[in-house]
Amino acid sequence: MILKNKNAVIYGAGGSLGSSVAKAFAAAGANVFLTGHRPEAIRKTADALSAGGGSLETGVTVDVTCGTTAGLNYRSATPTFARAR
Hints:
Helix content is 51%, strand content 18%. α1 runs parallel beside α2. It starts with 6 loop residues before the first strand and ends with a helix.
């Protein structure tokens, strides 16, 4: 597991590309934190990671074009990853 104990924030995790990246990172051992602007799509990706044995799947809705919500995303991911260590 090349990414074991590494953390990855996946933006756009509800879309095709973001979901594929999240699955690949999780399969490689990374702790993943899912973000996107469609909560139902993020949940679907998180469910797929859970079913596949993903290391950590958390989802938060965020608009990366807005500095305020992007900052909230970072602050949300930080404690999640601290617990994963």
